[in-house]
Amino acid sequence: MHRVKIKPLSVNGAWQGKRFKTPAYKQYEKDMMSLLPKTKMPEGKFNLYIQFGLSSKNADVDNPVKCFVDCLQKKYGFNDRNIYGMVIEKVDVKKGDEFICFETNEYEG
Fold it and tell me: Is the pLDDT assigned to residue 57 strictly greater than 80?
């Protein structure tokens, strides 16, 4: 499993209106490109497991998924249409201890 020590960015914090990335999203993307580890994504169909360490107990578990998956695509050059299974988990953490863990495996459906 890979761990990235960064606060997950929700879709709400990512876009201004319908077209423009917020400064927070641009910074998140930049940070993710440098923090994500060197790894290979499975070729073809695969499953993705994501664990978000969130400091707000009110945060929805699905809210940061889109921004994170978009960063994975950009870093590793795959198309998210190849994700056939996804498990998303939320863990409560103290403010400042936010993180994202992820893992992939081949889809066997």
Answer: yes
C-beta of residue 103 within 8 angstroms of C-beta of residue 49: yes
Under 8 Å CB-to-CB from 27, ≥6 apart: which residues?
A: none
Nearest alpha carbon to residue 102 among 63, 58, 69: 69
pTM for this structure?
0.83
Q: pLDDT, tens digit, for every residue of 30-40?
A: 999 999 999 99
Give the sign of the dihedral formed by CA 70, CA 37, CA 100, CA 31.
negative
Q: Which two tokens stand for residue 72?
A: 């994975």
